Amino acid sequence: MQVQFITSVAIIAPDPPASRKLYLDTLGLPLEQLDEDYYASEHIAGSKHFGVWPLSQAAQACYGTPDWPCDVPIPQASIEFEVANANAVADAAQELQTQGYALLHPPRTEPWGQTVARILSPEGLIVGLSFALSLHAQTDPAT
Asked: Which residues contact 111 (CB under 8 A, 6 or more apart)?
């Protein structure tokens, strides 16, 4: 597997208004409401995408339900690593499984065009391997 860059970092927010108060109001990050309770920015230097991801949306993305499973540690954050293309996401997912990691979900293409597969890391982070064509068009090794 060949990771090209970090796609995104998102805080997993069990209480989205409390998290927004810190990141948007107190720290003054230029976060925009993208849907319901998801706030994010692609305009913070050094980051392709930073988000405040509600736990209910993370559960929906990983398990297909708004409730995080009681027997799985609640993640604190999500990090996604970009690979070369959509086929590389499938290859990376297979490599993770071969190395003993259980996928939270198999590779799939989200409505916004990103292909992604996710695992839960030993530290309790949601780790995604993804490909989003729009990020490759603006890829600059200096950013």
From this structure: none
